[in-house]
Specification:
single chain; 263 residues; mainly beta; nine-stranded mixed β-barrel; 4 helices; globular
Length: 263
């Protein structure tokens, strides 16, 4: 299947693709913090599902450490599930292209503080980890936003990070769009590769100033970074819906092209 060509609005954000059929899940992501580092394409390639390749920008692959507050997650397009549908999540992710050319993300880990959610997701092959996660947010728009993750176990991985949103600086450059305009995930389950689509309007996305960053989640995911993140972003949130997973075919039409600019 060839990649769907999406038109871009005046900011360069690609039009979100419509879901095929009814949504299987509805949720809202709030107070999203995005930290990103460059990594070699070869390092990202070690963690791609079969038939999926790293999606590069400016000659590099990228790894993201992203924290957000999940709110009102529910099945289909119905109301959120009480209690279980709202929790904090921090994930480590890479950027991918399938054999059909469609862009996505590959999750190396997803920490959540709802055990039932973790158990259900792991049964479906999604690498969730049960952790203690705290959200730190000030009462004003200009205040810091951040997350603290503590996995269970004395020597388990952990993370603490926060940013100060710069609400006057809209992030609509090609790199920011490349890293956040992602409408699905690539994953492997029982030896097969799948793509799970989602759709949402453009993020209200702002540049941010990094504060405290003390992290071992990225290294625990088998990826090495050093120094401060090159991209630091914040979004107050967006509503999203997920569609049905589809099996990837290694014989899908069209070669995967390397990207040297934005989406």
């Amino acid at each position: 299947m060839a990649e769907t060509v999406n038109t871009a609005d005046e900011t360069g954000w690609p039009s979100p693709p419509p879901l095929s059929g009814f949504p299987i899940m509805d949720q809202r992501w709030e107070d999203a913090v995005f930290l990103h580092w460059r990594i070699p394409e070869s390092a990202a390639g070690l963690h791609m599902p079969a038939g999926v390749r790293p999606d590069t920008f400016d000659g590099s692959a990228w790894v993201g450490l992203i924290g957000f507050r999940m709110r009102q997650a529910g099945l289909g397009s119905g109301p959120g599930i009480p209690y279980f549908g709202s929790f904090n999540e921090v994930n480590v992710r890479l950027y991918s292209r399938g054999p059909d050319g469609v862009r996505g993300v590959v999750f190396r880990s997803l920490d959540a503080d709802r055990l039932a959610v973790v158990i259900a997701a792991r049964a479906a092959g999604v690498p969730y980890v049960w952790s203690r996660i705290g959200y730190r947010g000030a009462g004003t728009d200009q205040g810091a936003r951040g997350y603290t993750v503590r996995r269970f176990g004395q020597d388990a991985a952990h993370s603490t990070f926060d940013v100060k949103p710069l609400r006057s600086e809209v992030a609509d450059d090609p790199l920011s769009i490349h890293l956040t305009a992602r409408f699905g995930m690539h994953s492997a389950f029982r030896g097969k590769s799948f793509y799970v689509p989602n759709t949402h309007r453009p993020w209200p996305l702002y540049r941010a100033k990094a504060g405290l960053i003390s992290d071992s989640l990225v290294s625990a995911a088998g990826l090495g970074v050093s120094g401060p993140p090159e991209s630091v972003l914040y979004s107050p949130g967006v509503h999203t819906q997920f569609g049905r997973p589809r099996l990837l075919s290694a014989a899908a039409a069209g070669p995967v092209q390397r990207t040297t600019s934005g989406s």
